[in-house]
Every structure is written in C-alpha cells, then in structure tokens.
C-alpha cells in the first residue's frame, strides 16, 4: 500500500489545472476551469450529466488531450509524459472491466505484471489488497458470480496494485445497494488514511459529503462553486430547511404567501421549501400567517440543496 503522504499546505499539488479547456468540434465540454489537488486529499467533481466531469477526468487520466489551457499531473505534462504519469495512477472506471475468465486473485496479479512487478511481488500485493477490500476468502473464485459490490471492491483493489500516487474513481458506487455503498465508502476512507490521494466524480450528494475534503460543483463545463462540503452549505444554503406540504393545493400559490420567511422560498411540484436559519421559528412564522400545512419537516441543509440551487432542477440528458 502507499506510504502515507503529507497534505501540508506547502506540498506541491498533484494536479494543477489553469484555464483547462476540452472541445469536441463545436461543443465545449470543459470551459476554462482552474483546479488544484493536494497530496493526501480526497477531491471530488460533482455535477449533473453533461457538466464536464468525465471529460476532466479523462484529461487527468492522460487518455484525452486538453484543447487549451495548462494541466500538470504529478509535476509532469500529460501530453508529453502520459506514459510516465499513467504508471503512477490507479484508475477505477465507471463500468467494471474485470476479466471474467480469471480468478479474483489472477485479476490482480495479471494486472500487476503490466507494471513490471515480479510474480512473487504481484502475488504479495494481490493478497494484501484482497485482505484490505475484504475479498481474501474469494481469492480463488471466478469473477462472474461476485456481487456488484464485490466486483467494485475488486476493481478498486486492482487500481491500487501499482501503489499509485493518485487514484481516480469515476462514479465509484453507481448501481450498488446501500449496504455495498457504505462498505465501499469505508474502504475508500481507509485508503485515504493510508495516504492515498483520491479524485472522484459522483452524482451522489451523500457520497460527496462522506468522502470529499474539497470538491467543485461543475455545470455546463464550468466550475459553479468550490470548497469543503460544509463551507459550500454555509455559503450557498441556510442551516435548516422546512419542507411544507399543503395537501392537494398548488405549492406555487403557497410559496407566494410564505415570501419573506427565512432566506429563500422555493416551490416544488409537491411541497414548498423554506430555507431558514431556524427551522422551528420558520414553522411558527408559517402558522402565524394563518397557514396550516398538512405536514412540515424541519431538516438540516445538505449538499443536495447547494447542488440544486447552483445547477437547477431541470433534467439534463
């Protein structure tokens, strides 16, 4: 496993982008973004479909060249030094691409040989990683019968076999059930504790809150916001949110009547959201106006509130 790295502010960033652009013909997928990722950090790209997350990750992974701007990975130029950079990366793609004709252990040892490791060292690392991702008891099993969560953990173990300086994870828990997601989160947290630097894309707000020290919210190829999950919530939302339902009544009509309560009011198809510093006080203010919601829920503001505020609620294909 990687030797723990220092994440001190003075450390040189492992990723540094300035004005990074990626175009496909007339379409601009990434539109002049600035990003830095420090050693030992868990950094996330959060955004809706088409935001530019995957295009950015492909440039970082040295499989797609930037159209314009500056990009440095591990202190090197990904266009000129792509092979050297890739040798120090661990990559977990969005879709598992394990070899179903090999056993669980063979998927790791065969991959390790691509990095010039001896058979003995490849076997040692494979066994250590299988223990780490809790698959040691399935080492001699074929891949096909494994559950989705097991395959995902094996893919992450494979990404670590070369003891990479930087691990790229594209939508690491897509399609997994809640139990498998939480187990994978725990393994990724342990990786970070061991000194791994993680860069991930995700659609899941709770995943970003759980795993990321810092993240950027991307929309339309640009960065809409950057910071820690907590700082983003403090900047772009309120401490609490009231969800008020008014039976079969049109929420938009009630949203107008709730104007001025809290920091912001938003009408959804089935309820009205009131963003406020004090949710209970906001509920009292609603009743003081003579309004009687059928149900009210006071909850902590979340990264999802920030995400939807910045990127909108319209579905993007």
UniProtKB/TrEMBL annotation:
Keywords: Antibiotic resistance, ATP-binding, Cell membrane, Membrane, Nucleotide-binding, Translocase, Transport. It is found in: Cell membrane. One of its GO terms (biological process) is response to antibiotic. PROSITE patterns: ABC_TRANSPORTER_1, ABC_TRANSPORTER_2. Its main location: membrane. It comes from the Bacteria. PANTHER family: ABC TRANSPORTER ATP-BINDING PROTEIN (PTHR42711), ABC TRANSPORTER ATP-BINDING PROTEIN NATA (PTHR42711:SF5). Belongs to the ABC transporter superfamily. This is Lipooligosaccharide transport system ATP-binding protein.
